[in-house]
UniProtKB/TrEMBL annotation:
<feature type="domain" description="Pectinesterase inhibitor">
    <location>
        <begin position="31"/>
        <end position="190"/>
    </location>
</feature>
<dbReference type="InterPro" id="IPR035513">
    <property type="entry name" value="Invertase/methylesterase_inhib"/>
</dbReference>
<comment type="similarity">
    <text>Belongs to the PMEI family.</text>
</comment>
<protein>
    <recommendedName>
        <fullName>Pectinesterase inhibitor domain-containing protein</fullName>
    </recommendedName>
</protein>
<dbReference type="Pfam" id="PF04043">
    <property type="entry name" value="PMEI"/>
</dbReference>
<dbReference type="GO" id="GO:0046910">
    <property type="term" value="F:pectinesterase inhibitor activity"/>
</dbReference>
<dbReference type="InterPro" id="IPR051955">
    <property type="entry name" value="PME_Inhibitor"/>
</dbReference>
<keyword id="KW-0732">Signal</keyword>
<feature type="signal peptide">
    <location>
        <begin position="1"/>
        <end position="22"/>
    </location>
</feature>
<dbReference type="InterPro" id="IPR006501">
    <property type="entry name" value="Pectinesterase_inhib_dom"/>
</dbReference>
C-alpha cells in the first residue's frame, strides 16, 4: 500500500514539474501582451478583455485577425458552458412554475446565442485571404450575429425581472449571463475596431 502511495506522489510531482516547465517555455512575448492590452482599451470591459485573452497571447501574437478570432472563441466557450448550466437547471425538480418558465425561455435564448456565435466563428475562419467588399461582407455578417447574440443574452436576464423570481436561481443565472454578455460585448468591440482592416 505504501509503495502505491509513493508511486502516485512521484507521478504528481513529475506532472506538476512538467506543466510548470511547459508554462515557462510558452510565455508570451512582451509585444504580444502589449498588443492585447492596447487592443482591449477599445472594449467596454478592458480588464476582463485582457484577462480572458492573455492566456492566448502566444497564438494571438500581434495579429488583429487572430485576436478577434480568439475573442469570439472565448465568448463561444463561455456561452456553451452557460447553456450546459441552464440545461441542468431545467432538470431541477424543486423549481417554482414561474422559475421553470423563465429557465425554459432562457435556454432558448442561450441556444440562439451559441448558434449565432458558432456561425460567427465559422464565418470569420472562412474569410481567409479575402479583401475589399467580400471581406467587409463577412465582417458585417459577424457583427450582425454577435449583436443578435447580445440581445438574446439580455432577454434571458430580463425574464427574471421582479421580486417573485429573486433567489439563488436568478442570481446564478444572472452572474453567468452577465459574464457571457461582457465577453461577447468585448468581442464585438474588437471586431468593430479591426473589422475594416483585412
Amino acid at each position: 500500500m505504501e509503495k502505491s502511495k509513493l508511486f502516485w506522489l512521484l507521478l504528481s510531482i513529475l506532472y506538476f514539474a512538467s506543466t510548470a516547465n511547459s508554462a515557462g517555455t510558452t510565455r508570451a512575448s512582451p509585444s504580444a501582451a502589449n498588443f492585447i492590452k492596447a487592443s482591449c482599451t477599445a472594449t467596454t470591459y478592458p480588464a476582463l478583455c485582457v484577462q480572458s485573452l492573455s492566456l492566448y497571447a502566444t497564438s494571438i501574437n500581434q495579429s488583429p485577425r487572430q485576436l478577434i478570432q480568439t475573442a469570439l472563441s472565448v465568448s463561444l466557450d463561455k456561452a456553451q458552458a452557460t447553456k450546459t448550466f441552464v440545461y441542468k437547471l431545467t432538470k431541477f425538480k424543486a423549481l417554482k412554475p414561474r422559475e421553470k418558465a423563465a429557465i425554459k425561455d432562457c435556454l432558448e435564448e442561450i441556444d440562439d446565442t451559441v448558434d449565432r456565435l458558432v456561425k460567427s466563428v465559422k464565418e470569420l475562419k472562412s474569410v481567409g485571404s479575402s479583401k475589399g467588399q467580400d471581406y467587409q461582407w463577412h465582417i458585417s455578417n459577424v457583427q450582425t450575429w454577435i449583436s443578435a447574440a447580445l440581445t438574446d443574452e439580455t432577454t434571458c436576464v430580463d425574464g427574471f425581472a421582479g421580486k417573485v423570481l429573486n433567489g439563488r436561481i436568478k442570481n446564478s443565472i444572472g452572474t453567468r449571463f452577465v459574464h457571457v454578455e461582457r465577453v461577447t460585448s468585448n468581442a464585438l468591440a474588437l471586431i468593430n475596431k479591426f473589422g475594416s482592416k483585412p
